[in-house]
Structures are given as structure tokens and as C-alpha cells.
Design a protein that fits this description.
Largest sheet: 5 strands, parallel
CATH class of the largest domain: Alpha Beta
Strand order of the largest sheet: 2-1-3-4-5
CATH superfamily of the largest domain: Response regulator
Number of helices: 9
Bound molecules: calcium ion
Structural class: alpha/beta
Radius of gyration: 18 Å
Oligomer: single chain
CATH architecture of the largest domain: 3-Layer(aba) Sandwich
């Protein structure tokens, strides 16, 4: 077993049914759980228990989950995965922009949930920078290789000839593979804090990137669209 120290997951959720489901699922996978049903308790217990990952329901009885994200992010980078019944894209984007690492919309499946948790934990363990990139200067998924030293992207060994801006977008998503990056985050990281909030430029770049890297641009294999929120690079599971 690779994980001798069991990761501790805090579940902040006021719905007893979902709590029971999450608790049972996480225990089966060998995680230790800490369950909290109100925002106030959550804030106290996060500082005393220092969980490895936080699953956060946005609709809590005493507090908006977004306020918890803001408060936690003021002092720790513990990964936060938002679990929300809100399917509004603006809510998801807001939570991510406040510092949540990922989100999952109710109802969700066990496999999806566990994959998101593994991704979140892996990113903490490699200090937010993808370990493979730090080691090799490359990121691999499927037949794609991003070469960070040469600033090139290859599909099955063939240089796909991205423009400099296209490369920057792919490179950024690769560094955060498995995690959703909001349009705002991408624009700001690539073009600075004063970047236009217009997502249109990203969509234009992405259409061109997909024509170059995806076998079928309508069914992306490498870069997924999170509708109304942003993009997510695939990672090997
Ligand atoms: Ca709730």
C-alpha cells in the first residue's frame, strides 16, 4: 500500500443523507473522515484538525459556503472541493475564483467523487506544481506530450505547431491537469490582472488548439470544457 498515512477528509454538509453516503464511501476507500454540519463549527475544526482535503456544501444553514472558502484561503491552501446542488455556472466560477480547487454537482457518482479527491490530494503532495513536469520538464497524457523546455506540444511524436499564445494556454492547463481552471484565472495568469474579462478570445484560441491536438474536436480527449466555467486538462488515472 502506497498510502500508509491515511488522508483525513473533512465533510462540511448539513444533509444527513449525503453525509452518510460520503462517510461510507470515503471509509471504504481508507480515508479518515471528520463530519461537520454547520459553517461555524467547520471553521473551528479546520484550524484544530488540519484536514488534508475539505468537501464543502455551499448551502449551509448558518453561513454561505463561499464565506468559508474565503476564510480558509486567508491562511491555508488545504484543497477544497465544493459539493453543490447549485448548477448555475456563475456559482461554480465564483467558488473557484475565491480559491476552491474543484467542484462537483449533486447528484454525483462515487467514481467521479473519488477521482476528484485523489487529484486534489496529489496536487497538495506535489506543492501545487505537477511533479512529473518538475522532474522531466514534460507532461504526458494519452498520446500528447507537452514539452515545457522546448515550448512544443506533440501528438504521437508529431509537433502540432501551436502559436505562442496557444502553447501558453495548453502549458497552463497541463500544470494544473485534472483541475478546472476558470476563464478568469486563465486570462489573468496569461495576460495579467488587467486582462479583459472577455472569454471570447479564449474560445477562439481553444477552437484552434482543439483542431490541432484533438482527434475529434467535438469530443475532446485532452482538454474538456466545463460549460460556463472554464477548461480542464485530462490526466492519466
Ligand atoms: Ca445544504
Amino acid at each position: 500500500m502506497a498510502n500508509i498515512i491515511r488522508s483525513r477528509i473533512m465533510i462540511i454538509e448539513d444533509d444527513p443523507g449525503i453525509c452518510t453516503f460520503l462517510n461510507a464511501t470515503l471509509h471504504t476507500e481508507g480515508y479518515v473522515t471528520i463530519i461537520v454540519s454547520s459553517g461555524q463549527n467547520a471553521l473551528e475544526l479546520i484550524s484544530s484538525h488540519c484536514p488534508d482535503c475539505i468537501l464543502l456544501d455551499l448551502g449551509l444553514p448558518d453561513m454561505d459556503g463561499n464565506a468559508i472558502i474565503e476564510s480558509v484561503r486567508a491562511w491555508t491552501s488545504t484543497p477544497i472541493i465544493v459539493i453543490s446542488a447549485r448548477s448555475m455556472e456563475t456559482d461554480k466560477a465564483r467558488a473557484l475564483d475565491l480559491g476552491a480547487d474543484d467542484y462537483i454537482t449533486k447528484p454525483f457518482g462515487t467514481i467521479e467523487l473519488l477521482a476528484r479527491i485523489r487529484t486534489a490530494l496529489r496536487h497538495t503532495q506535489t506543492t501545487a506544481e505537477n511533479g512529473e513536469i518538475a522532474l522531466l520538464g514534460e507532461y504526458h497524457v494519452g498520446e500528447m506530450t507537452i514539452d515545457y523546455r522546448k515550448h512544443r506540444v506533440y501528438i504521437a511524436g508529431e509537433d502540432v505547431r501551436l502559436t505562442p499564445n496557444e502553447f501558453r494556454i495548453v502549458a497552463l492547463l497541463g500544470k494544473h491537469a485534472g483541475r478546472v481552471m476558470t476563464y478568469r484565472t486563465i486570462l489573468r495568469q496569461l495576460w495579467g490582472p488587467s486582462a479583459s474579462a472577455d472569454n471570447k478570445i479564449l474560445r477562439v484560441h481553444m477552437a484552434s488548439i482543439r483542431r490541432k491536438i484533438e482527434p475529434n474536436p467535438n469530443e475532446p480527449r485532452y482538454i474538456f470544457t466545463e460549460v460556463g466555467v472554464g477548461y480542464r486538462m485530462a490526466e492519466e488515472v
